[in-house]
């Protein structure tokens, strides 16, 4: 497969499936004999992720995702394991069947200014991603919309640069965007759903493909953001 580049970022294939907790248990026990646990994970092999997704009053990002548009962009601010000193602005772009992710570090103060609509400083910021988001916020009224929490477990495989992730315990803040408030009330979505994501570069090795074979998997165009918005 020919490598595709967007803004200096190499495209990757990203497949998503909705599976049960039992399927997750079975797959985990297969994969751990062949793949490595993410070295950045905690002692239990998992870590906590909190993101706030940007959207507008017309649900631009949500509707593009639901409609499965081949060309779309999604912005979010993300932190791991409650570390507010490691706050990233991320842009995920879909072009045909490939996914591209750009990110840059931001500060707590910068996010809070975005949250309350103080965005003039973004127009000439040295970070191109900040400038891109500024245009979206000015043209389409994008703003931080919904906080989504979940627990992630990651397995990696060097050949094909494969990452297999299991995302569970997905919670939503509805339309509260106070991502830095760790007392923020969060509502559980579907406790029985685990989102399986398979990401790779040019190819998915046959050994991993075989390990991932289970019945009754449902491929989907949904995301954690889409799941969270189903509840409000």
Automatic annotation (TrEMBL):
Q: TM spans, by residue?
A: none
Give the InterPro entries listed for this entry: VTC_domain, VTC_sf
Domain VTC, residue spans: 12-228
What's one Pfam family here?
VTC
Q: Name one GO biological process term.
A: polyphosphate biosynthetic process
Q: List the protein's name.
A: Polyphosphate polymerase domain-containing protein
């Amino acid at each position: 497969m020919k490598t595709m580049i967007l803004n200096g970022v190499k495209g990757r294939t990203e497949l998503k499936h909705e599976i049960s907790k039992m399927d997750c248990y079975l797959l985990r026990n297969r994969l751990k004999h062949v793949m490595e646990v993410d070295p950045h994970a905690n002692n239990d092999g998992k870590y906590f992720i909190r993101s706030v997704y940007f959207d507008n009053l017309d649900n631009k990002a949500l509707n593009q995702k639901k409609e499965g548009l081949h060309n779309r962009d999604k912005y979010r601010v993300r932190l791991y394991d409650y570390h507010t000193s490691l706050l990233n602005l991320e842009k995920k772009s879909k072009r045909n069947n490939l996914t591209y992710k750009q990110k840059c570090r931001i500060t707590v103060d910068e996010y809070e200014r975005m949250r309350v609509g103080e965005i003039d400083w973004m127009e000439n910021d040295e970070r191109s991603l900040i400038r891109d988001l500024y245009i979206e916020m000015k043209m389409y009224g994008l703003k931080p919309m919904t906080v989504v929490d979940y627990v992630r477990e990651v397995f990696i495989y060097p050949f094909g640069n494969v990452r297999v992730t299991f995302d569970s315990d997905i919670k939503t803040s509805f339309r509260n965007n106070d991502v830095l408030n760790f007392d923020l009330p969060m509502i559980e979505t579907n406790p029985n759903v685990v989102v399986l994501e398979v990401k790779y570069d040019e190819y998915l090795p046959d050994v991993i493909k075989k390990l991932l074979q289970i019945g009754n998997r449902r491929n989907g165009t949904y995301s954690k953001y889409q799941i969270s918005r189903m509840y409000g």
